[in-house]
Amino acid sequence: MLKHIVMWKLKETAEGKNKLENVLLMKRMLESLPGRIPEIEFLEVGVNVNHSDAAYDVVLYSEFRD
After folding, report:
1. Alpha-carbon distances of 55 from 5, 9, 25, 60, rounded to whole Å
2. Closest by Cα among 28, 24, 25, 22 to 10
3. Gap between the Cα atoms of 24 and 38, Å rounded
4. How does DSSP classify residue 11?
5. What is the C-alpha separation between 11 and 1, in angstroms, rounded?
6. How far is Cα 41 from Cα 23, in angstroms, rounded to an integer?
7. Whole-angstrom Cα distance, residue 47 to residue 26?
8. Helix, coil or strand: residue 59
9. pLDDT tens sequence across 16-66
10. With 0-12 CB in 10 A as exposed, 13-18 as middle and 19+ as buried, what is 62?
11. Residue boundaries of the structural domains of the chain
12. Which of these, 7, 1, 17, lies nearest to 44 by C-alpha position?
């Protein structure tokens, strides 16, 4: 099994949206991937609730068979 973890820190504003709007858009888009990529066996998207400078804004955890 292959586990894949990706973490992002977003800018305060981008594409005419604030950070929260972009976090929620990114979460929605990432959560739609299993329906489009059949090799994804498990996918979870985490959103920062800590608001510390050390914390990431979005985290993707996914699992693949190989």
Report:
1. 15, 8, 19, 14
2. 22
3. 23
4. -
5. 33
6. 23
7. 10
8. strand
9. 999 999 999 999 999 999 999 999 999 999 999 988 888 999 999 999 998
10. buried
11. 2-64
12. 7
The pLDDT, as a whole number, for residue 30 is 98
pLDDT of residue 56: 97
What is the predicted pLDDT for the residue at 53? Answer: 84
Alpha carbon distances (Å) from 13 to 2, 17, 25, 58, 60: 33, 6, 13, 15, 21
Q: Please check whether residue 58 is in contact with residue 48, taking contact to mean a CB–CB distance below 8 angstroms.
A: yes
pLDDT of residue 3: 98
Class of domain 2-64: alpha beta
Residue 20's pLDDT is: 95
